[in-house]
Write a structure and sequence with these properties.
Length: 310
Amino acid sequence: MKKTIIALLILATAVIASACGAETTPAPNEAYYVEESGEYYLDGITYEFNQQEVTAKANGVYSFDIVDYWMPDYILLNGKKYKITETIENLFVGQDGLKTVRLSANLKKIENALFADCDKLEKVTIPDSVEEIGDSVFSGCTSLSALTLPKNLRSIGEEAFFECKTLTTIVIPDSVTKIGPSAFYGCQLLSEITLSKKLEAIEDETFNECPVLKTIVIPNSVKKIGNEVFWDCTALREITIPDSVTEMGTRTFYGCEKLETVYLSANLKSLDHETFAFCPAIKKITAPWLLEATLKMMFVTDEVEFDIKK
């Protein structure tokens, strides 16, 4: 019982210190073992240790009062350093007081739903060691307005930024080749995004319901554009689909009510009949000759100019 009380006092002190927002890098700390629970604790987080690989994994949140959390790169156990290389999925899910986080410089992946529904989360420092952002990592983080992604990032998971309603701008580093479906679905203030020059596809619903997104440059690396990608992007005015794109899904621009100018890939051979449904402002479409008949069936009006490439 005495060990338990000591451990809890240490945890409470660490959490209060964390909430004060100290800027200096803390030294690696000693983990404390609580016999009753059979777990090791540090700064409100529980850890498990891999003796063979000399690594540690964050596997639970003990305190529900964490505001500013600095995850150390190492943790000490019996005087021995262990790299913090992993976390479980959902580690901080629903932590409604959490505002800022710095992740361990030894992490390779941000696990699925790590910060899901942390609605007060404003800042996350992600180290360049991270190569993968899992599914739903920042889903529902409605206070996250900006984020710098690591330079070695390779993939972003499904619904990674789902309904991050205050996210305004983001740059996807050129190391990224994959972004999962619905990654930026419902980002209501997203006005600017720079895509990776190595991105292979824009998956289903990636920018669905991003109503202030006015422009986007699709790189020549993209071969496929999925279903409903720009659904209800009501501020989008112009789009160029590069010639690298050979496949485009259904209802791609459905409800893009201010879209005026479209340049379609010369290598597209077909279009869904609802590609431009509820796009009343379209004035000009440049397209390959194979799509001429389809487009003229979509737009039975003299107000749309067709620039057909033979």
